[in-house]
Amino acid sequence: MEGERVESRLQESLVAKAAVVNRCLEEVMANRPRIRKSLGEAMRYTLSSPGKRIRGALVLWCCEMFAGVVNEDAKAAASAVELVHTYSLVHDDLPAMDDDDLRRGRASCHKEFDEATAILTGDALLTLAFEVLAEDVGRALAAVRMIKTLANVCGAEGMIGGQMADMESANTAGTEALLREIHVNKTARMFAGAAAMGAIAGGADDEAVGKLLEYGLKLGLCFQVSDDILDVSGTSEELGKTAGKDAQQGKMTYPKLLGMEGAKKRAKELTSEAVAALEGFGEEASILRELAETLKERSR
Prior knowledge:
Layout: H1 2-30, H2 37-47, H3 54-67, H4 72-92, E1 102-103, E2 106-107, H5 109-112, H6 115-136, H7 140-154, H8 159-168, H9 176-201, H10 206-233, H11 236-239, H12 245-248, H13 254-276, H14 286-295
Antiparallel strand pairs: 1-2
Helix pairs in contact: 1-3, 1-4, 2-6, 3-4, 3-9, 4-6, 4-7, 4-9, 6-7, 7-9, 8-9, 9-10, 10-13, 13-14
């Protein structure tokens, strides 16, 4: 029963935070009436898909740890993180990449519109993220730190580099070290960046920001290991995307390298490491601990 109450509390908080992020994203688009109508429609379509907003929520939770409230800088940061994440999904689904017709239970952007529109939609979402940080974060130093953090985790040495490595490793034997490198860059560093940006928004010192970077990295790795497991065990209806795609495309995954039980064990280890990174934080970090414990056993 205690575990159910914790999960219910976390779910309620996530739903509330997702609603905040969704309103912020709506405002971001509403404040830019000069965006060409056809492009704006595609951007709104992808942003309005029913995502969980875990990365955006992570920004808000980490801000609350230090500021006690969700401030405007955190809202801007959460918007930027979700803009980048959504761009990555639009581009991942393209025929030249993962070639998926389904995303978040809806037609992928290139299927709903067309391939060229999807490419430009991704480009627009990515650049808009940095515009939001530059314009809407009230403290100049915080804005610069967030811009640098986000560029670092999503750029050539982060998410994009991880995507490239993921493509190059398809249909190869691979190693766990290489797989970890791919997942760190492709997925985990965005979680780390979200946690750090939330801490920056809340006025945390450098030591605290560093701890949350470590927490986010372990959390993101656990998220990706769970994602690998779900690709094998879940259905397309449960996942909101095509199940079994990793195997079809010959991708390296944790179940493929370690077996299903080995992958589940690795997820538990990463959960413990994520929780350990929060040592020194008190009750204010309880939601982050609960998040780590829940992600390792997520079903969608």
